[in-house]
What we know:
With about 200 residues, chain A is mainly α. Chain A has one domain (about 25-205). In chain A, about 65% of the residues lie in helices and about 0% in strands. Chain A is built from nine helices and two strands. Chain A has a two-stranded antiparallel sheet. The longest helix of chain A is centred in the C-terminal third of the chain and has 31 residues, at about 125-155. Chain A is flat, with a radius of gyration of 18 Å. Chain B is globular. By secondary structure, chain B is mainly alpha-helical. The model of chain B has no long low-confidence stretch (mean pLDDT about 90). Chain B has helices spanning about 1-10, 10-30, 30-55, 65-75, 85-95, 110-125, 125-130, 150-160, 165-170, 180-195, 200-215, 225-230, 235-245, 255-275, 280-285, 290-315. Chain B has one domain: Ammonium transporter fold, CATH 1.10.3430. The chains are: A mainly alpha (about 200), B mainly alpha (about 325). The interface of A and B includes residues 165, 170, 171, 175 and 186 of A.
Amino acid sequence: xxxxxxxxxxxxxxxxxxxxxxxxxxxxxxxxxxxxxxxxxxxxxxxxxxxxxxxxxxxxxxxxxxxxxxxxxxxxxxxxxxxxxxxxxxxxxxxxxxxxxxxxxxxxxxxxxxxxxxxxxxxxxxxxxxxxxxxxxxxxxxxxxxxxxxxxxxxxxxxxxxxxxxxxxxxxxxxxxxxxxxxxxxxxxxxxxxxxxxxxxxxxx
Amino acid sequence: xxxxxxxxxxxxxxxxxxxxxxxxxxxxxxxxxxxxxxxxxxxxxxxxxxxxxxxxxxxxxxxxxxxxxxxxxxxxxxxxxxxxxxxxxxxxxxxxxxxxxxxxxxxxxxxxxxxxxxxxxxxxxxxxxxxxxxxxxxxxxxxxxxxxxxxxxxxxxxxxxxxxxxxxxxxxxxxxxxxxxxxxxxxxxxxxxxxxxxxxxxxxxxxxxxxxxxxxxxxxxxxxxxxxxxxxxxxxxxxxxxxxxxxxxxxxxxxxxxxxxxxxxxxxxxxxxxxxxxxxxxxxxxxxxxxxxxxxxxxxxxxxxxxxxxxxxxxx
Lengths: 205, 316
């Protein structure tokens, strides 16, 4: 297998958090059916993940691995509290609709797994940039998914009615979210593979 | 091997013949819209199949034409007043998401028509469960007024059946376009079983289970009447012929297929009895997909072990 050169920008396109690594897919599938839900989730995910990983990067490496992971979860849970209060002020209905998936953001894969597997092996500057782009990768997919699903399932954009000729309410349900995300993953991988082939051909030339 | 290939070649024309008869009956009862609905579903299924086969990097072969039957089966499960756009979306979903995403006709997991039906039921529930009266001919663009619940729904919720036996046999009651023509479905079942185009075991198991459970749980009328109505209502006979007994999905060995059909129908009947779930057998057939796959895997293992035993004996 050819080794691909990694970059700090990978999290957005080349190794997208959701489409490539299939991380944090539950909120996208279950709650990513309207732009309001997406906005609440994006804000919470971005703030919790960024600050949790940044603070967790100062946890000493001498502590055993299992204890470190527990400490990351505790840190993110503490950060979750003010985020939840703020989200409740800005998006009260969305937070209620999102339900259990909101607190689950506090223990998403980027915090409990990717910290040790990727981020903490990088230099701090690269780590911050890479983290930002991984967060942006999730945000982008969440926005696109929520926009398309809300338009096709409910005929609205950010709760404003549009003149959509046909509504497919199944897309607003979790099974519709699964299928839509699966299709999106397939299209993403096809584009990435085609782009990879083209780059190889250009390099050979 | 050659006989198997020859047999598979006549499955498509046989299925199309029986389905076209049902479509013609639907045209007789509901007018041009019923015919157009079947045509739209067939056309969109074919287009979706051709495009997705190209994406899979394969050639479009004769066996891929079964997508047309899937489209027509799906259309026959709809009301005659269904919108063309919704029917087209359902057909594309059935072919692309329920079949080709998993590898196409060689790796089928669900009946595409059943999965398409469930997709349409969740997306357009009110439209899918509102039916025009028999002989109410809808024009090219269906008149959505005057729609009512199906006879199956009324029977499930109240236990009353106001149609005579003759009307039920002829399909002269409100319901899905193809699911109501009981006499035609019985003839289609006989033709397809004798031609070995559908699984006789799965069909027998489905009907046997429905009749048995209906006779046991008969509340209104005689056991015989309840059993007959249980088979005629809720698309049980239609699903038994075109979905549960689909040879692409049902277990190959007759006894395995019988049990697969038996448990599918049993679960569906329980849903009908307890939740008055209309057309539950179509929903249950998708849920029972793992069981069908399990049976097929078991059959493959048995075949491999038998082949190994035979070759070991020959080696001795």
